């Protein structure tokens, strides 16, 4: 069984990003992936800010990354880039911690103005920690994820189609890699 970890870089518990992560998680689970999630904002702030590599929480989170075949990096876009809380966690992943992983970025922002945030701000950092197989990713705008009165979300059909396509590519790439090994 393939293992996936979703790294949630949102500092906000009720973020629209949750709808996108849930969509990916459900799709992967339906394809028999074991999926876990790291909510970076739930890690002790002092461990993140003071780069406590030996913290039990950081060691556990990095263990989930190490065991995963697939890593989904999810973040809202703030100030033309991914969140600072996500960066603090990425700084704690060992130098080659993403080597051999298939990576899928999932970003959401207020407008299309930051569409290239995945390519220009995230991918260089991921490459520096060993990622070599980074899929194109999905960038969504807030307007594509509507809040419902019950607290849930509705995802626009066009975004659902792009998410389906990206997750299907992730599943296919993972299965091909597992067959070769």
End-to-end distance: 13 Å
Question: What is the quaternary state of this protein?
Answer: single chain
Number of strands: 8
User: How many helices in DSSP terms?
Assistant: 6
Query: Share of helix among residues?
Result: 40-55%
How much of the sequence is in beta strands?
Answer: 15-25%
Provide mean pLDDT, rounded: 96
Contiguous runs where pLDDT drops below 50 for at least 5 residues: none
Can you walk through the features of this model?
With 181 residues, the chain is α/β, with parallel strands linked by helices. The chain is 41% helix and 22% strand. The strands form two sheets. Strands 1, 2, 3, 4, 5 and 6 form a six-stranded parallel sheet that branches. Strands 7-8 form a two-stranded antiparallel sheet. The protein is globular.
Topology:
Blueprint: E1 3-8, H1 17-30, E2 34-39, H2 45-49, H3 56-67, E3 70-76, H4 84-90, E4 102-109, H5 117-128, E5 133-134, E6 138-141, E7 145-147, E8 153-155, H6 157-180
Parallel strand pairs: 1-2, 1-3, 3-4, 4-5, 4-6
Antiparallel strand pairs: 7-8
Helix pairs in contact: 1-6
